[in-house]
Automatic annotation (TrEMBL):
<protein>
    <submittedName>
        <fullName>ARP5 protein</fullName>
    </submittedName>
</protein>
<dbReference type="GO" id="GO:0005634">
    <property type="term" value="C:nucleus"/>
</dbReference>
<dbReference type="InterPro" id="IPR004000">
    <property type="entry name" value="Actin"/>
</dbReference>
<keyword id="KW-0539">Nucleus</keyword>
<comment type="similarity">
    <text>Belongs to the actin family.</text>
</comment>
<dbReference type="InterPro" id="IPR043129">
    <property type="entry name" value="ATPase_NBD"/>
</dbReference>
<keyword id="KW-0175">Coiled coil</keyword>
<keyword id="KW-0804">Transcription</keyword>
<keyword id="KW-0805">Transcription regulation</keyword>
<feature type="coiled-coil region">
    <location>
        <begin position="292"/>
        <end position="326"/>
    </location>
</feature>
<dbReference type="Pfam" id="PF00022">
    <property type="entry name" value="Actin"/>
</dbReference>
<dbReference type="GO" id="GO:0060255">
    <property type="term" value="P:regulation of macromolecule metabolic process"/>
</dbReference>
Length: 332
């Protein structure tokens, strides 16, 4: 059906505005600042009971940073963080993340993310951050990683208090109803890995926590490879950002895997539930209509250009060697 044909949105990230915090986050004393420090997305907001302050995160951006070297004769290197990147694909080879398996290991990049949070939330204290910080982390976070994070917050930002917590446990306690038991099994599927957390009588059983090194990142890369192998003519158009869009907006988790396989064996069910993705039109695909003579001529032109470029490089190298030889002879 035509309604089952979807076009890639290729959304560009809009830069985060600089927010002006209200008086409620400062008086009678600075309220805590909650930072969900995730490997896929960073969220930040104020933990304030005042109804004028939104309870939802005020800031959401990808936990990525890129440092451009800058053009020749320009202003030099420029660092962009989160939504300031605009679109990740042109800068894919420059993107850096402070996380490795959900554990922050690159504290220089983590400092860039924190600077972005404090600046865009309008933290106005001079020379320090006088708000208490509530920071999420992975379960059984290595002590060294927490030590470096604490050193960054206390030494660099002069934070008065810091509280660490596990995001999936916060979600478990927040969503648990009164008639539900205090024990349960939490499956936290993240971007780089998945954590399984048993909760017994309201407390985390840390000894039996497990981590699986599979997450949304591996699923997107695997889907990208499958589609690139199936459609080699669209190799460049099948980008990682589009694969993440398919996973987030056109995929679901099967509650009964065997039953889902039976459903998809039916041709009617397949036709009624299949999503078709429409790639944008590209003039590059028209190159296959060239004749063999035109292709041969184009190859000859490319070969001549390469030969001219190599000859120019050899001349420049000979000139540099001659200048160096002249200087050495002069010294001799």
């Amino acid at each position: 059906a035509p309604s089952r044909v979807f076009a890639f949105r290729d959304v560009r990230w809009a830069p985060d505005p600089v927010l002006e915090p209200g008086a409620a986050v400062r008086t009678p004393q600075p309220v805590p600042l909650v930072i969900d420090n995730g490997s896929f997305q960073t969220r930040a907001g104020w933990a304030c009971a005042d109804p004028t302050v939104p309870a939802e995160p005020l800031l959401r951006f990808r936990s990525l940073a890129a440092r451009n070297r800058g053009a020749r004769g320009g202003t030099g290197a420029e660092t962009q963080v989160g939504n300031d990147l605009g679109s990740p694909e042109p800068l894919r080879w420059l993107l850096r993340s402070p996380f490795d398996r959900n554990v922050p290991v690159q504290l220089e990049l983590q400092e860039l993310l924190l600077d972005h949070v404090f600046q865009r939330l309008g933290v106005s204290s001079q020379g320090c951050v006088d708000h208490p910080i509530v920071l999420t982390e992975a379960v059984c976070n290595p002590l060294y990683s927490r030590q470096m994070m604490s050193e960054l917050l206390f030494e660099c930002y002069q934070v008065p208090k810091v509280s660490y917590g596990i995001d999936s446990l916060y979600s478990f306690y927040h969503n648990r109803r009164q008639n539900w038991p205090c024990s349960g099994l939490v499956i936290s599927s993240g971007y780089q890995c998945t954590h399984i957390l048993p909760v017994l009588e309201g407390r985390l059983d840390a000894k039996n926590c497990k981590r699986i090194n599979l997450g949304g990142c591996q699923a997107a890369v695997y889907l990208q490879r499958l589609l690139q192998l199936k459609y080699p003519g669209h190799f460049a158009a099948i980008t990682l950002s589009r694969m993440e869009e398919i996973l987030h907006e056109h995929s679901y988790v099967a509650e009964d895997y065997i039953e889902e396989l039976r459903k998809w064996q039916s041709p009617e069910y397949y036709e009624n539930n299949m999503h078709k993705m429409q790639l944008p039109f590209s003039n590059k695909l028209l190159g296959s209509t060239l004749t063999s003579e035109e292709k041969q001529e184009r190859r000859q032109q490319q070969l001549r250009r390469l030969q001219e470029l190599n000859a120019r490089r050899r001349e420049e190298k000979l000139q540099l060697d001659q200048e160096r030889l002249d200087r050495l002879l002069y010294v001799q």
